[in-house]
């Protein structure tokens, strides 16, 4: 069942989810939140997941980010059965291959922006000499080069969101999972983030999944998959 995915025209999907389900339940009750979700995303693709609040979008993103275990189903990342990895293997995979932008923009509040971006690089074993220019470049790319030494808890909502995007990308992940990454941004900054994502997938090695409520942002993705009551359409 978990044999490696055959290559399709020389390429394997970066994300391959087959029949994912997630049930939450307490005291014997079972609430199905994801129902048989299947999704393939190839390198170079940008996919939007849209849908009403509570339909299961964040739950799907958490599963794809290896932050939550599905109740059942298969998930392969670049052909590897990542659900079969132990905790350390999954943590390593998150660190090396995945970039996550959370809805809550969870920054280290008492650290400055530089430290927030440097942390994942230290964790990934990037040398000090390489860390500095990568953090600076990531911050300049989201037009926040002037905020490098600002403490995180002094940033505005929009600035926090842009820092969260820069932090997800500083590791050059293969897969970027972004939960409403433009929810707190004006039009110009929203499109700047999408330009950035577009440029990254343009290299042909990376895939982006964006959860969004904004039809303008969804339209910038190659594919739109509406989620409705735990069912993912348009895949
Ligand atoms: N840890 C949890 N325990 C129980 N129910 C949960 C949990 N996390 C999410 N849910 C429920 O799953 C449904 C989908 O949530 P979510 O994936 O956050 O939706 P969306 O991101 O589309 O708004 C909601 O009804 C939510 O209440
Ligand atoms: Mg959500």
Q: How would you describe this protein?
A:
This protein is α/β, with parallel strands linked by helices and 235 residues long. It has a single domain (42-68, 87-232), classed as P-loop containing nucleotide triphosphate hydrolases (Rossmann fold, 3-Layer(aba) Sandwich). Helix content is 33%, strand content 24%. Strands 6-7-8-3-9-10 form a six-stranded mixed β-sheet, sandwiched between helices. β1 (15-24) and β2 (31-41) form a beta hairpin. The longest helix is centred in the C-terminal third of the chain and has 15 residues, at 187-201. It binds adenosine-5'-diphosphate and magnesium ion (MG).
Map the helices and strands.
Layout: E1 15-24, E2 31-41, E3 46-50, H1 57-64, E4 72-77, E5 80-81, H2 87-97, E6 98-101, H3 113-123, H4 128-141, H5 157-169, E7 175-179, H6 187-201, E8 207-211, H7 215-219, E9 223-228, E10 231-232
Parallel strand pairs: 3-8, 3-9, 6-7, 7-8
Antiparallel strand pairs: 1-2, 1-4, 4-5, 9-10
Helix pairs in contact: 3-4, 3-5, 4-5
Determine Rg (CA atoms, Å): 18 Å
| Number of strand segments | 10
Number of DSSP helices?
Answer: 7
Instruction: Compute the separation of the termini in Å.
Output: 22 Å
């Amino acid at each position: 069942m978990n044999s490696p995915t055959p290559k399709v025209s020389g390429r394997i999907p970066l994300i391959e989810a087959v029949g994912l389900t997630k049930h939450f339940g307490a005291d014997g009750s079972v609430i199905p939140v994801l129902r048989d979700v299947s999704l393939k995303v190839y390198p170079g693709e940008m996919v939007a997941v849209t849908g009403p609040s509570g339909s299961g979008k964040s739950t799907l993103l958490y599963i794809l980010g290896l932050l939550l275990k599905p109740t059942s189903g298969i998930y392969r990342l670049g052909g590897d059965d990542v659900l079969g990895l132990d905790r350390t293997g999954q943590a390593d995979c998150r660190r090396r291959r995945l970039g996550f932008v959370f809805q809550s923009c969870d920054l280290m509040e008492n650290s400055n922006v530089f430290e927030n971006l440097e942390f994942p690089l230290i964790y990934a074993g990037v040398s000090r000499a390489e860390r500095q220019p990568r953090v600076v470049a990531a911050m300049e790319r989201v037009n926040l080069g002037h905020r490098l030494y600002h403490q995180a808890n002094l940033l505005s909502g929009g600035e926090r969101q842009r820092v969260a995007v820069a932090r997800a990308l500083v590791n050059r992940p293969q897969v970027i999972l972004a939960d409403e990454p433009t929810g707190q941004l004006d039009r110009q900054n929203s499109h700047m983030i999408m330009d950035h994502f577009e440029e990254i997938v343009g290299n042909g090695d990376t895939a982006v999944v964006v959860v969004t409520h904004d039809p303008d942002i969804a339209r910038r993705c190659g594919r739109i998959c509406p989620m409705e009551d735990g069912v993912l359409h348009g895949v």
